Structures are given as C-alpha cells and as structure tokens.
Amino acid sequence: MTVRNPVPLLLVGLMLLAAWTLPLLSHAPNRLLSGRGIQLATLLHGPRLLLLLPAVPLLAAPWLPPRRGCCVLLASAASLWLAALTGLAGAEAARLAGGADTLARTSLGGGYWALFILGALLANDALRRLGGAGGRLALAQLALYLPLLWLLLSGRLEALSLLKEYANHRDSFDEALGRHLQLVGLTLLPAGVGGAALGLWAFCRPRARGVLFAALNIVQTVPSLALFGLLIAPLAALGRLLPGSGLAGIGLPPALLALTLYGLLPMARSTLAGLQQIPDGVLEAARGMGLSAGQRWRRVELPLALPVLISGLRVTAIQAVGLAQLAALIGAGGFGAIMFQGLSGSALDLVLLGVIPVVALAVAVDALFKLLLSLLEVGPR
Amino acid sequence: MIEFSQVSKTFDGQRAVEALDLVIPQGELAVLIGTSGSGKSTTLKMINRLVEYDSGTLRFAGEDVRHFRPETLRRRMGYAIQSIGLFPHWTVEQNIATVPQLLNWPKPRIRDRVTELLALLHLEPEQYRGRFPHQLSGGQQQRVGVARALAADPDVLLMDEPFGALDPVTRAALQDELRRIHALSGKTIVLVTHDIDEALGLAQRIVLLERGRIVQQGSPLELLTRPASDAVRDFIGRSDIGIKLLALERVAARARQGEAAAGEPIAAAATLREALSAFVTRGADRLPVIDAQGRPAGTLHFADLLPPAP
Amino acid sequence: MNRPPQGWPKTLRQWARTPLPWSLAALLALTLGMPALRPLFAALFPELDRPVYQQDSFAALVLAHVALVAASSAVAIVAGSVLGVAVCRPAGRAFRPLLESLLAMSQSFPPVAVLAVAAPLIGFGEAPALIALVLYGVLPIAQGTLAGLDAVSAATREVAQGLGFAPWQSLWRVELPLAAPVILAGVRTSVVINIGTATIASTVGAKTLGSPIIVGLSGFNTAYVIQGAVLVALLAICCDQLFERLQRRLSAWQPRQEDTAESAALPPLAGH
C-alpha cells in the first residue's frame, strides 16, 4: 500500500512512541511525594478498550484517500480521541482517589500532553485538507474541542489534580479571568483608536513615516518586563502629583499603558498597509465620479482598508493576551498571578491552571477575529 | 540538430502536445507560434527537459535528450525568457557569467567573454558590468538576458517570448539585434512567440501550433502565400496578408538598376512595406534608391511592388 | 526616498532615525558606569538603603544575558532555517501545512508560559530558559525562511533550472541569497524576542539582566528595576539596529524602498 499522506504517518508514529515511553498519568499519595508514572497500556482493559475505537481511523490515516469524507472522518475521530484520552485519565484518577483519600494526587503526565498535542495536530491537518475559508476553518477548529468541553463541564475530570487546583483556587481563578479580560479589553480600545490614528497620519504624511515607525519599532523592541519596569517610577511620581487620579506605579495603570504602547505598532502598521493597498485607480475613479472626500472615505477607503485594519486589531489582541500574563509581576493580576504563584511553589498543576486558560483565550480571540474577517469578505461591501 | 518524432505530453489528463513531428536543422531560426494553450511553450521546454515528454523520441545532436543529465543538456543550450528572468541579486556581469561559471571556465576567460557579449549587444561594458538588473531599463535587461543565454557559446538558443514585455520600439530594435546575432553566429535558435509580425520578421521556419498539433510549418512566404487552412489565414491576419508579404522583401530586390529619379531617396535595405508607405505619404510613383553607403542604387516604381508575373 | 544615513547623524531627525550610535554608547557607559550613578539613584529614591544593584556586576549580567541569547539563537537559526528550507523542497513539501499549523499554534503560547511549565519539570536555572529561548527562537526564523523562499519568483527559479543549475545549486546560489533579507528579518525578530524571554527567564532562576528587575519588583526597590530595565532595553535596541544595518547590506541589490509599513520588522509573536 502506498502512503498517500506522510504527515499522519509521522504524527501517528510519534503518538505510538509517546504512548509507549511516556507516562499518561502520574500518581502520588500526597503533594510532597513525587509521583509514580502510569502508562496508557496498563489502563486499557475490559470495556475501556472501546475508548481506542476513535484511534483506529487515525492509525489508518496515512493510507486514506484525500477525499472529503475521509477528512471529516479523521477530524471527528481525532476530536473524539482527545476526549477519550482525557476521559480515561479522569476515570482512572477518580478510581485512584477512591473517595476517601483526598490527599492523593493524580496529575496528567508527559504522555498525555504529547498525545493531546499530536492529536490536535492530526485534526488540524485533516481540517486543512478540507479547505474552506479562514472563518469556517477557525470555527471547525474550535468545534474540535466541544467533546472535551462537555467532559469538563460534566464533572468527570474532577479527580484530576489540575481540576482540584481549580476547586481550591476558584475565587482567585474567577478574579484572574475578569482581570485578564479587563486588561485585554481596556488595551484594545486605546491601542486600536490610537494606532489607527497614527497609521492614518503616516498615510497622509509620508515624510513622517520614517520617524514614526522607527519610534514605534523601538517601543516594540523593548522587552515587556523592562517596559513594565520603566513605567513604574514615572507613574508613581504622577500618582503622587495627582492624588485623586488613581494613577500608581504598580497595578493596572502601568500594565494598561505598556500593553497599549505595544499595541500601537501592529495597529498603525496595518492601518497604513490597509490604506496603501487600495489601488490608485480606484481612488482616482471615485474622485472622477464626483465623490467628495468624506464620501470617498466612507464608501471606498474605509471599507477597502477594513479587513487589513481588523487583522491588525487581531495581532494586537493576541499579543495583549500573552503580554497580560506578565502584568502580574507589577501587581496587575490576571492569570499570570496564578502562574507565578505556582512557579514559586514549584507546583506544575497550579502553573498549568494559570497557563491553559491564557492559551485557550488566545485561541478563542484568534478564531473570533478570523470569523469576523471572513464575514467581512463574503458580506456586502 | 533537434528532432521530434511522435512526441506527446499530457498534463493532468489534458493533452498539451500530441504526436509532434518536427525537425529543426543546424543553424536554423525556427519560431514556434500559436495562441496561448497551443503547446508552443511546452514544446520548447521539452527540448531542455524543463518539461519531460511522455512518449515518442526527442533527439538533440543525434542523441536522445534523456541520455543527457538535465544540467549538462541545459548548459549546452542558452535559455532566455521575459526580462524578469535576470537574477536580481547579481550584477550584469555575474548574470552573464552564470553558465561559464557553472562550467568552471577560468576567471580571465569569463571576464573577456562578458566584455565581448556586452559589446555585441551594444551595452558599454565598463558602464554596465557592475549594475544590478533593477538599475537597467526593460530593453537593457532583455539584452543582458540574451547575452546570458549566449555566454557559454551554446549549440542552441531557446527563447520563450523573450521580447514579450517590451514596448514596440525596443522590441523592434532587439529583433534586429537577434537577426544580426543569428547571421553572425549561425546558431540554431528556437523562439516562442504569439506575435505573428515577430514570427514573420525573424523566422526562417514558422511552426504554427494549435491545441498541441502542428497546423502548418514552412517559410514566412509559404505561410503567407499558401496558408493550409482558413484557421491559418485568420491567425496570420486575413486582411493584411498583402502588406505582410511586402514586409518580407527588400527594396534592393525590385529596384531598377541604372535608372535615376528625383526626390527623397529610400534605403535599399528597407522593406517593400516601408516603400509602400513612402509612396503613399509622398504622393510619388517612383522613389530613388540609395545603398548603405548613400550611393544611388537605382529607382523603385510603384508598379514594382506587385509580384513579378510567374 | 528617505534613506537613513550610514555615518554619524547630524540633525535631530537623523538622531531619531539612527538609534544605533547613541544606544550603543549608552549601553556601554551604563554597563560599566552604573555604580557611579549611585548619588543620582540615592537622590531619586531616598528611602532605599542600597540604591544600586550589587549582587552581580552589570557587566557580568550583560555578558550572561548575551551568552544565553547567543547560544539559543545559534541553535534556533540552524534549526529554523533547516526546517523552513526542508518543507519548501519537493521531498518535504507535504509537511509544510504541519509546520504552518505549529507556527500558528505557537502564537497562542506566551514564552513565559513555556518557561513556567518547564521549570517545575526540569528544575530552575538556565536549562528551562534555554529550552524556551530555542523554541521561541525557531518560530520567526522558520517563518522568515518560508516567506523568503516564497518570494523568489517562479520565473527566477525556472530560469535557474533552464540555465543548468542543479537543484542544490539553485537553492544555494539563487533562492537562499534572494530570500536572505527576509530570513534575516526573521532572525532579527527572533533575537529581539529572545532578549525579552531571557529577561523573563530570571523568574525561573536564570541569571540575566532580568534579575535586578525581578529582585527589585519583589523587594519594592524601584531603582533596581530601572537599572535592569534600562540596560536590557538598550541591549535589545542595539541588537535590533545592528540587524537592521545587516539587512540593509544584504539587500543592496534591491531598489531602495520608501518607508512603508512592510520595511519594519516582521510582526511579533505573543508577548516577549
């Protein structure tokens, strides 16, 4: 049989290797003792073998013809496989916990994460083969994780130490979520408006471009931790000068300011690029037909530049989600606070509790903007 | 030099070239012409194996092209395409020296060859040697492209719409240049074009292709006087075949020796088409003819434009 | 055409456009002369007992920072460009979508997350920092290599083949040199990101210019924070500008571009 697609061959090979060599779970009687690894193979017996069912099409993937049906089958099999794997881990953790012994900890091991990532890549590969526009692809990619989400909400995973950490830190988790969203949301508005204004200015005044982009590039070049740090002293001084202003060197103000400054460059750049890519002929035709400057702006320039503008906003938003993670270091909270708390206690589960939501948030923001862009493309101009 | 026999090529089930028989003898300037999708480019690219044919045989210098390593074969054939084909990161000198370098010529020999070729193509060597392609005009770029194709003194020159992207004036100048180089070097040249005037002006043999098959091949005169079908007649331009015929012949061939006439003279090397234009614009029925040195070379009468009775 | 001058700047505008000379001078002066600024920091922050970071000399911190970034970038440059070239060759073309998926996915992972996950697993110190730096260094370089090779026109590739270049000769002598400016832009982004990630790496115990910042933040010593932040910012700006000059030199064959949005660096990945 000829291999029709070498990509799944590589991924499936790596999956087998990971399942063979890395522990799926790690079980420790309590938090202080280091864990004992549990392989996937030792968990598979009796009715649990049924969980391997979705893995069958995945194993056959390299030899499947590149037809639509096969791609759909593969993507859904991969999606179910991710859920099956997770469900298995949750069930085993519940069995090991046995109800009474609440100190026992069962955490997801390297094998689980490797299998998860490889499975997600396999699903992605199948979806890409299906083709389809950016928006639909993004939606399909999100839909892959629906079975997993159902599993999470159904409470079947609660015995896993990650979820136990969540239960222990529920309040600070909710607070972190709110603060993280606040940081991103409050950044997008000024960065979007300010960046677009700078881009527009650069478009109208080509002579200013060099200096503007050199300056914005310098801001972008400064490491985020340094920028956060550099803003502390001036903002603290301002706060002392204006006691009622709410300004302070620590907390929300320097974080928001830094995130906004970082957002200006991608936004200004894409605004300029969006305006520059409008063909001269189109503008000349609009002028020739007698549209006024305002009409040209509203009916020609803005609609044509909008997609590029929004992709700039997308970069700004994703960047802000990641950067906000660091804002915890200057006391601005967010998921970074949970992550750094875990880091200082060397508690991987707590670190993951601070990392996974940020990754999920970034993926969701990305998909949202892609969807928006695809709506703009097909919708009426 | 190049022999196709029953050569076919299929792309994804689409026939590009079908059972092609064609012989291009040594030293001939052959032009492949046809509409887009006629298979003319594919035919050209099969010669240097940029496209591999499916069936039949294709011989170069008496040997099946498949017996050569593709690189070796290509280095024996000059290759020129539209001006975008220059390597933008190399100077004019480096571009022209490409194939000699691949063939490991000694440095001084390469340098001499570049100087010689730049001079041949009327580019002042010391002025242009160190320039980058983007610093040249379109016509200059194309001259460099032709020089590069000629650099290693190849047996064959393959040209894929080499003058396609140029304005009419530059294009005419380069066509003259190519005619001159062909006359000087006697190289076998295969050129692809979709411009019938270019084909009529350059070719010794025109090969008209349509959907992967040869519709007619022959000299420009044969094509104009004995088109094989209505399709050929349409392609070469039904209404001005007469004008095109005039463009094939020179004033010198019809001038009456020893006769003198008054008025502004016409060059003996001009085509009869140019002579017709001169008759009409000057309102004269005879023109004095002068040779390249400016000496009187007879007179051309308006009636001389008509072909001599058979 | 606004072409930044190569020599020493003469006007304010030129100063703003060529940050390399002054940032390099400032970096050197501050690295060696920070202790001399003690009176200044003492005056600015009278409440601090020790207004200048003294656990390590700033020269040692700069060297450690540069060494960490240089080591990881060297690995990343080799790995990233090999990956990028490999998926553009006929044999590896099938893996290109996989690499692109990986690149897209990695944009959702902030580098600090990789650091934080790696540290509890393999221990604190330079090791998790190196892992995170290499991983994040590879991405922009692979991306730049892909973009650079894509930008080589099909006509150029065809003509190289038609003139008799063997495939590797075409890659080495035509395609890679043409892609070099874009690949270098990727390297530039990669190194700048790595300087930032190395700063954060001090949260997992690596000794870098981030150490004074972290120590200062946790001990409410704003002077330490400023000292570390200024130096690392200058270091990043210097590297960025050095690469800018290199890029300019490598693309000498291109027609000079006007200042457009594209002439700036590649878009950055999530937070550095």
Q: What features would you describe in this structure?
A:
- The complex is a heterotrimer of chains A (381), B (310) and C (272).
- With 381 residues, chain A is mainly α.
- Helices cover 73% and strands 3% of the residues of chain A.
- Chain A has 2 domains: 6-163, no CATH class; 170-378, MetI-like (MetI-like fold, Orthogonal Bundle).
- Chain A has helices at 6-21, 40-43, 55-60, 68-97, 110-130, 134-143, 146-153, 161-168, 170-204, 206-221, 224-241, 252-276, 280-288, 293-324, 335-344, 348-378, and strands at 25-28, 36-38, 105-108.
- In chain A, strand 1 and strand 2 form a beta hairpin.
- The two termini of chain A are 50 Å apart.
- The model of chain A has no long low-confidence stretch (mean pLDDT 87).
- Helices cover 37% and strands 24% of the residues of chain B.
- Chain B has 14 helices and 13 strands.
- Chain B has helices at 40-47, 70-75, 92-96, 98-102, 107-120, 125-128, 138-150, 168-185, 196-202, 220-225, 230-236, 241-248, 251-254, 272-282, and strands at 2-11, 14-24, 29-33, 55-60, 63-64, 77-80, 156-160, 188-193, 205-210, 213-218, 266-267, 286-290, 296-301.
- In chain B, helix 5 (107-120) crosses helix 7 and helix 12 (241-248) packs across helix 14.
- The model of chain B has no long low-confidence stretch (mean pLDDT 88).
- Chain C has one domain (18-34, 55-254): MetI-like fold (Orthogonal Bundle).
- Chain C has 11 helices and no strands.
- The two termini of chain C are 33 Å apart.
- The interface between B and C is medium-sized, with 25 and 19 residues.
- Chain B: Keywords: ATP-binding, Cell membrane, Membrane, Nucleotide-binding, Transport.
List the keywords.
heterotrimer; B: 310 residues; alpha/beta; Rossmann fold; 2 domains; globular; C: mainly alpha; MetI-like fold; 11 helices; 68% helix; flat; disordered N terminus
